[in-house]
Amino acid sequence: MRWCGATTGRPPGVPGGYPPRSVPSVTSHRRGCDPGAAGSGRLARLTSEPDLPAPQEPAEPEPPAAVPEAGGHPGRPTPSGPPSKLARNVVVGVLICFVIASNLANAFLSVLVTDHPLLFMGLNAQNRNLALASAEVSAWSFYLVGFLRLLGPDPFFFLLGRWYGDGAIRWMERKAPTYGEMLRQLETWFHKARLPVVAFAPNNYVCLFAGASGMGWGAFLAANVVGTAVRLWLIRVFSEWFDGPLGSVKDFIADYRWPLLALSIAVVLVSIVSERRAGRDAVLDLAAMDDNITAHEPPADADRP
Predict the structure, then answer these.
(1) Other CB atoms closer than 10 Å to residue 133's CB: what's the count?
(2) Residue 304 is assigned to a structural domain of this protein
(3) What is the 3-state secondary structure (H, E, C) of 37-76?
(4) Total tally of structural domains belonging to the chain
(5) Domain containing 177: what range?
(6) Per-residue pLDDT tens digits for 289-303
């Protein structure tokens, strides 16, 4: 048995017991074999505290998943708001002009439908008006004026949706409570199939949904243009198939245009007054859209601790 180079045990030739104390062997002083150093090192290892891992800071809990508000949907882009007050006023002003034009067409329907069919279409391109005026104008006039009037307000509603997000959708639901359930169902369909819904029904509500959802301009315009063109073609075909009944309706309007003019003006005025009494006005609602959204939407940091 060796201990740092020194020999222990019974040496050969020495009977019984160990030899007398002798000078340690030179090998006992080899580097790293000092008995004192070895003993002190072992003692130090035995008495020293074991190495413990450094304490780690507790991991911060992950924030809970955002719960969308009523009418909201996760994954939508954050509304940017209008780039300037001028841009907002221009968009709202154009839409107010479209609202006034529609009311004028409804009020003066009996005069415009037979004497000024293109102006009638340009003021209000509802399906009814397009069908009545179709036989009075050429094909290219019908498609050009009808296309421009139908497509006109859509980019502006798209911009409102892009600027105000879900706040714009809830604003429209508050201003059209009669159609609230239909709007929510339409919104559900929209998020399942954006392109078909925009192509099939590119109305004000759908254009607002498209902007709020972050739909790209290219996809929105492509679906809108295709849907509008198909819609005009179907109305044109319908008016040709039912030219006889539609002609009878126009003859009746021409024979009684003045009593019908007074009646249509009265109906438009009564509808405007009724809407105002119910707290809704298309022109004023658009003009005060910012204030209405701010009053009903919670501030962005309302849920922060």
Answers:
(1) 28
(2) no
(3) HHHHHHHHHHHCCCCCCCCCCCCCCCCCCCCCCCCCCCCC
(4) 1
(5) 85-296
(6) 888 887 766 554 444
Residue whose C-alpha is closest to residue 187's, from 164, 161, 163:
161
Query: Would residue 132 count as lying in a domain?
Result: yes
Length of the chain: 305
Q: Are 212 and 169 in contact (CB under 8 A)?
A: yes
68: left (phi over 0), alpha (psi -120 to 50) or beta: beta
pLDDT per position as a tens digit, 243-294: 999 999 999 999 999 999 999 999 999 999 988 887 788 888 888 888 888 7
Residue 217's CB: how many other CB atoms inside 10 A? Answer: 13
Instruction: Spell 160-198 as b/e; 16+ CB within 10 A means b.
Output: bbbbbbbbbbbbbbebbeeeeeebeebbeebeeebbebb
Domain membership flag for residue 70: no
- Answer yes or no: are the C-beta atoms of 131 and 142 closer than 8 Å: no
